Predict the structure.
Amino acid sequence: MNPYRGLAIIFGFYATGEVLSSGLGLPFPGSVVGMLLLLGALLTGILRIEWVEEEAEFLVRNMSVMFIPPGVGIVTYLGLMRSQSVPIFVALTLSFLITLLVTAKTVELLRRS
Amino acid sequence: MNPLGITLTIVVFYMFSELHSRKRAVYTNPVLLSIVTIAAILNFGGFSYESYMDSAIILKFLLGPAVVSLAVPVYKGRETIRAYAREITLGIAFGGTIAILSAFYIAEFFGGSEEVLLSIAPKSVTTAIAIGVSEKIGGIPALTAVLVIITGLLGNAFAPELLNLLGVKDKVARGLSTGVSSHGLGTARIIMEDELAGAVSGLAMALNGVFTALILPYLIELIK
């Protein structure tokens, strides 16, 4: 199958999302707008899953490598990381624990009722 | 265009992903090791971040289409979402909100600056979405990226053990709480213990990303 059909759809939805996000001044990232539009198109049957499945799964599987360039940007904030290390690490650890606990207990309660 | 950035990223990531496939451990996480290594190379080699980004920006750009692509796993998981609609809706609404508020207020209590508070607020959602949200609300996307990865590593290393300690046995509760608290890296771990928990965790990650992207701009206006 021609992979450019899937890529054309994915890039098309991304571009549409970005245009809507900046054009309408939405506070959400264009990529999330594009994702919701693509999900809508799949759910309503306007697009068939086979048209985008392989290309979308390739991009999702390979997301990790794409985080590296923005992550490397941390070199320009090393001073900030050092001076703010206490609030950063305490908040990350405690917030992770609280989120895990609250979500797990909420779902457990719902499952029992 | 200076090819340094993209070449360095691919070569370094390739080496660490090989290492990770041989030695699966939290401390061999290829993304974090690659970031640290490349940052060190730029620092000691005297290269600027701008010269690195000249070509590495291509990879960063692909995050947009990759986030759009998350529609596919959500679409394919629609039966699971329907089966656990109540748990997923309330778990994400509650857990996703607590994740934002707890990070924001704890960081503020310990003297976090405004840019740190804005960068830490979206730390529980998948990196690609968190970076976009951070950009929109005035945080530092690079700082958010690193905080998200550290959060994910916490989930990858400790989520199943902590859930055992808390006595959480239900598969849906285990998967959902892992996905909401520690996105893709937590999912990668919980999927090894149970298929349903893994599927729910992956869906929770994607849906919490959307939920956070939609509410955070308004929530931040209220609390900042």
